[in-house]
């Protein structure tokens, strides 16, 4: 069986790594929410040997993630746990949480559930990094994002590029403060939050 493959993961892994290595420099444990194919995990973990990288996703994606981990093993890279945003997270506290290209895919109630989980499971002074496209003041940041949003909604009416103001409001309610909003390639952003409450 062929491994799942995402070209987007390959395209953006280097600029994301550069920021994560700095953001997670004092972290010992990171939970990746929605590991997808597993490509980000197998690339990032060997470059951040000081931390334990826990993959997670819905059960249906575990086989693909595990295939990538088997082919590119690392001593600090952990096989996926089942994490469904509809249910309590099966994990204790962690120093950092990372998620990429998830908040525009899942429904808004699940975005809210994501931040509730972050609030419960992220340690004090822990870091949350979110990668993906966002709107600003209700407007698309590019024509390509506008087209992408149409495609998302046609595929699933619950999906949409989220307004950054709404994301920041949820984060603040969860005890997080936005420290950096990094501009990334292909009209994406990397939002870096710290847990202060």
Structural class: alpha/beta
Q: Can you tell me the residue ranges where pLDDT is under 50 for at least 5 consecutive residues?
A: none
Q: What is the CA–CA distance across the termini?
A: 46 Å
Number of self-contained structural domains: 1
How does the major sheet shape up?
Answer: 7 strands, mixed
Order of strands in the sheet with most strands: 3-2-1-4-5-9-8
Average pLDDT score? 96
The CATH superfamily is identified as Vaccinia Virus protein VP39
Beta strands, count: 9
Q: How much helical structure, as a percent, in the residues?
A: 25-40%
Organism: Cognaticolwellia beringensis
Pfam family, one: DUF938
Protein name: DUF938 domain-containing protein
InterPro entries: DUF938 (IPR010342), SAM-dependent_MTases_sf (IPR029063)
TL;DR of this structure?
Helix content is 36%, strand content 28%. With 197 residues, it is α/β, with parallel strands linked by helices. The protein has one domain: 3-Layer(aba) Sandwich (Rossmann fold), CATH 3.40.50.
